[in-house]
């Protein structure tokens, strides 16, 4: 018998009489016992109430507590959305009239007054009542089946507001920076497909989240809609790299028409459904997230910034520094008339900062040096009244839980009026020959580290043309110190890249002459206009079990490069070039081959290839 088994047997012998397996102290849970269930959590936090009462964000006498109602949204772009709405209103909702469950009268679902075409409804029915009540069994089964098929989505009411304020059109390129769990992302996809006469919209949604597991949840949510206009990315939102697309044979930076920035927050606006807010809320939560929120929002473009927090440290204190740094390039849009029926409060212009021990500060100069690690200057309102007035912070939307029986929320719509000042200050990395064939673009990202390069380091870089080749070099002398500065003149260090998620098979576009597709095309009688070039698979060898499809525009984003060399099993041939002339291709990944000669350096390989392309 092992040591663990002996210890377990000794513990069983010493257990008091009447004790059951898995219970401590005789199997009782306090005074209520096992049959009494858990003690009811008291929704009270004196520090929370003191903080918001002192800031006067929630008026006196408006602190009554009620549970959050359940809400559902009908998928708007589906052709049979109106049929589902008719079925709900005339069949299932009528059955709820005069219905009581456990002595509680069931409230008939009501439409959200500010959501278009009555496609969003809310009710006091909880999931527990839906599952246990025999009278609601058919209604529950209907909701489950339609949710799985993508016709209905369970989504909190306030979560529907940011996508509506983006005013999405079918041709827009959209970036959702913190997209998980995906309810807003699916709403954006619906808006792209609003016009049923356009089967494949020109726009698309790039949904990003830093959590790998949340990205799987994003995929699960998005695949219910069967849209080819969605791409899920797993990356840190505060340092999303610039993507490139092919425009007329030239690589250009992908700019987004709309950006949804639903950033991580303390979540104190979810106090009606999140019990942890009452138990664990402290001001330190907001102070720690302020810097992250400011880094995430510092991106150019038109965007909606939203949080489920009522704290001005996470709301107006994030918007104000960005507007100040933009130097007039960004401004807050007035969206007060875009959602008729929505009740809200204007943004505030004055607030105070409180530490975790309840000490208040109204100005950065009054903060002691010992507090500088927790409290930052950007957390306070601007001192200049003219600048503060020009920002129009009152255009922000503050939605309190008691306004329309929702959760707490903050929304700010930013419109880009001109180029960002930090983009204007960036040095030009291309010479006059950039417009000629075979020009080389120097990316502001280090390809070996996967992190953006410091802009100060880019100032020493230039691009010159020698004969038919272009060589990116640094002005510093690298021969003396041997340190690699720009990732071009030296091979990258031999260290393994850190894996942030699961290692999976990559997506590969099927070739044009693949024999797999003709039988499928014949069996399903597909239209000849159907583009097989937009199909992907997860394997290049063996049987292909599943095919995936993306839109033409997303293919342009994904297919940023093609395979130039491949492994050759024959020893006589060293390299097998797939294509000789590839306009715009400036990055080559050489694979190892079976040869007795040492492989060429990356710099020599790029130099030889550019000579070949230039010819």
From TrEMBL:
<keyword id="KW-0808">Transferase</keyword>
<keyword id="KW-0820">tRNA-binding</keyword>
<dbReference type="InterPro" id="IPR023270">
    <property type="entry name" value="RCMT_NCL1"/>
</dbReference>
<dbReference type="InterPro" id="IPR057285">
    <property type="entry name" value="Pre-PUA_NSUN2"/>
</dbReference>
<keyword id="KW-0949">S-adenosyl-L-methionine</keyword>
<dbReference type="GO" id="GO:0005737">
    <property type="term" value="C:cytoplasm"/>
</dbReference>
<keyword id="KW-0539">Nucleus</keyword>
<dbReference type="GO" id="GO:0030488">
    <property type="term" value="P:tRNA methylation"/>
</dbReference>
<feature type="binding site">
    <location>
        <position position="209"/>
    </location>
    <ligand>
        <name>S-adenosyl-L-methionine</name>
    </ligand>
</feature>
<dbReference type="InterPro" id="IPR049560">
    <property type="entry name" value="MeTrfase_RsmB-F_NOP2_cat"/>
</dbReference>
<feature type="binding site">
    <location>
        <position position="262"/>
    </location>
    <ligand>
        <name>S-adenosyl-L-methionine</name>
    </ligand>
</feature>
<dbReference type="InterPro" id="IPR001678">
    <property type="entry name" value="MeTrfase_RsmB-F_NOP2_dom"/>
</dbReference>
<comment type="similarity">
    <text>Belongs to the class I-like SAM-binding methyltransferase superfamily. RsmB/NOP family.</text>
</comment>
<feature type="region of interest" description="Disordered">
    <location>
        <begin position="1"/>
        <end position="29"/>
    </location>
</feature>
<protein>
    <recommendedName>
        <fullName>tRNA (cytosine(34)-C(5))-methyltransferase</fullName>
        <ecNumber>2.1.1.203</ecNumber>
    </recommendedName>
</protein>
<dbReference type="GO" id="GO:0005576">
    <property type="term" value="C:extracellular region"/>
</dbReference>
<dbReference type="InterPro" id="IPR029063">
    <property type="entry name" value="SAM-dependent_MTases_sf"/>
</dbReference>
<dbReference type="GO" id="GO:0005634">
    <property type="term" value="C:nucleus"/>
</dbReference>
<feature type="domain" description="SAM-dependent MTase RsmB/NOP-type">
    <location>
        <begin position="60"/>
        <end position="417"/>
    </location>
</feature>
<feature type="binding site">
    <location>
        <begin position="178"/>
        <end position="184"/>
    </location>
    <ligand>
        <name>S-adenosyl-L-methionine</name>
    </ligand>
</feature>
<feature type="active site" description="Nucleophile">
    <location>
        <position position="308"/>
    </location>
</feature>
<feature type="region of interest" description="Disordered">
    <location>
        <begin position="422"/>
        <end position="464"/>
    </location>
</feature>
<feature type="compositionally biased region" description="Basic and acidic residues">
    <location>
        <begin position="448"/>
        <end position="457"/>
    </location>
</feature>
<keyword id="KW-0819">tRNA processing</keyword>
<dbReference type="InterPro" id="IPR023267">
    <property type="entry name" value="RCMT"/>
</dbReference>
<dbReference type="GO" id="GO:0000049">
    <property type="term" value="F:tRNA binding"/>
</dbReference>
<dbReference type="Pfam" id="PF25376">
    <property type="entry name" value="Pre-PUA_NSUN2"/>
</dbReference>
<dbReference type="Pfam" id="PF01189">
    <property type="entry name" value="Methyltr_RsmB-F"/>
</dbReference>
<keyword id="KW-0489">Methyltransferase</keyword>
<keyword id="KW-0694">RNA-binding</keyword>
<dbReference type="GO" id="GO:0016428">
    <property type="term" value="F:tRNA (cytidine-5-)-methyltransferase activity"/>
</dbReference>
